[in-house]
Amino acid sequence: MHGFRRQFTGELWQSSKKKTVKTTLLCIFLFLFIGTLVFGRWIDASIFSGYLSQKSILTSKQTLKKHEFPLDCTAWNQTQTCTKNYPTTNKPINPDRSSNQTCPDYFRWIHEDLRHWKETGITKEMVERARRTAHFRLVILNGKLLRWYPGRLPNLEMMFDCDDRPTIQSKDFRRPNSGPPPLFRYCSDGWSLDIVFPDWSFWGWAETNIRPWRNVLKDIKEGNKRIKWEERVPLAYWRGNPHVAPARADLMKCNVTAKDDWNTLLYVQDWNKESKQGYKESNLEDQCTHRYKIYIEGWAWSVSEKYILACNSPTLLITPRFYDFFIRGMAPLHHYWPIRDNDKCKSLKFAVEWGNNHSAKAQAIGEAASSYIQEDLQMDYVYDYMFHLLNEYAKLLKFKPAIPSKAVELCPERMACGEEGNWKKFMVESLVESPTDTIPCTLAPPYDPPALKDFLDEKFKSTKQVEMWENEYWDKVNSKKP
Ligand SMILES: *[C@@H]1O[C@H](CO)[C@@H](O)[C@H](O)[C@H]1NC(C)=O
Ligand SMILES: *[C@@H]1O[C@H](CO)[C@@H](O)[C@H](O)[C@H]1NC(C)=O
Ligand SMILES: *[C@@H]1O[C@H](CO)[C@@H](O)[C@H](O)[C@H]1NC(C)=O
Ligand SMILES: *[C@@H]1O[C@H](CO)[C@@H](O)[C@H](O)[C@H]1NC(C)=O
Prior knowledge:
Elements: H1 2-6, H2 19-37, E1 41-43, H3 45-48, H4 73-79, H5 109-114, H6 124-129, E2 136-140, E3 156-160, E4 184-185, E5 188-189, E6 195-196, H7 213-226, E7 233-240, H8 246-251, E8 264-268, H9 271-276, E9 290-295, H10 304-310, E10 315-318, E11 322-323, E12 337-339, H11 344-357, H12 359-376, H13 379-396, E13 408-410, H14 412-416, H15 421-429, H16 449-480
Parallel strand pairs: 4-6, 7-8, 7-9, 9-10, 10-12
Antiparallel strand pairs: 1-2, 1-13, 2-3, 5-11
Residues 350, 353-354, 357, 473 line the site of one 2-acetamido-2-deoxy-beta-D-glucopyranose.
């Protein structure tokens, strides 16, 4: 299990475990998550043999009352085959519940992520090249996929890599040598072409006792009401594993001491101890008790990001290198406060003091992020994002997806029935037992290049603005020193 835990970009274990272990467990989790949405798909066993028998997928439960397709472990235990009793066509759309609305803005990055293949399309050969680092191949036929939106997706075949860091470097695919391999993963960066996809934690994170996202969101919403912002500890707070990345070790220097007061409180999370004590100290809804929360990457992006942003305390976001699928829609000074990565302590101290001096503005930043997370990142939109990303991807395919000879059919039973503990609990909790009767939100067209440039320039300008304020502040402080 340790191998997998480390994946968490660091909230958990160190990355000392060797790749084999890590990869295996990691990916299994991925299944878990993909399974949730995806439903009758096959795994290319030639890449993956053996994994499925160990762990599996789960599906996400909706708050709908109907349980049309519950988990059937009795049948599974007898036959060990996926039953054919799964929804393959859409329900009629309920006009009262039909959302018919434009998707949140961050969905427009789907077009940017797939832009490299827009002219050429995606050939079988390109997909095969993505196999170099992929952990599994997923084939979806006849729309037997999303239980949430059965029958809506075109046939497709994709490669998924569950490791943390992107591997498809843009510099290797400059024109005219284009045609990069399309590879899905949880995060990417400005130098890579990897396609970002929601991570498993939306279906729960068993090792740390963090429930599926739908429920976590409700808990945090309740937690936010408990202590008013003014009554929270007027300092910046972070809890996590500092050993996964040098930047985190560097952050540790900013903790308050008798000698230095950086307005910052940092705690090392010992998940081993926590798991033995029943996770008493790691309840997410109890973590919105400080006025400011720090986000810092681990080995790559960190899953902690959405939990931190969901508190209505402003997030002090240490300049990240990596992005996941939703952060690109967020803006400095509006949704979070940017913190320099090369002078963290001074930057944090200034941010906290500024916020305490401008409490209305600070609160507005906290509120903006928390409503972005509560609304634009609600679970239904996570499914919509997966739907649109896969749908747009499938449109680019130049070949007919087919089931590889050694593939294994996946279904929720294969994933869940042999599970125990939190694994099983969260799978059942997040299981989609009935298709939705709404349609996916409407995907907006790609940004036109000037609009995208404006958006990015604006982000850059806000960050520079904060850095300028910071410089002025520290110049003043230093000039007062004897
Ligand atoms: C199916 O088998 C697993 C063990 O493989 C067991 O834990 C579970 O209770 C069984 N479920 C049913 C409904 O028989
Ligand atoms: C959704 O909105 C579009 C354009 O605004 C409209 O043409 C369409 O009829 C609407 N569909 C439903 C189901 O309301
Ligand atoms: C940071 O300081 C607080 C308060 O003194 C202390 O409880 C905590 O253990 C310190 N954290 C680290 C990582 O040293
Ligand atoms: C906060 O207010 C105090 C008192 O007015 C002032 O001395 C300090 O420079 C201010 N700090 C920031 C960061 O705005």
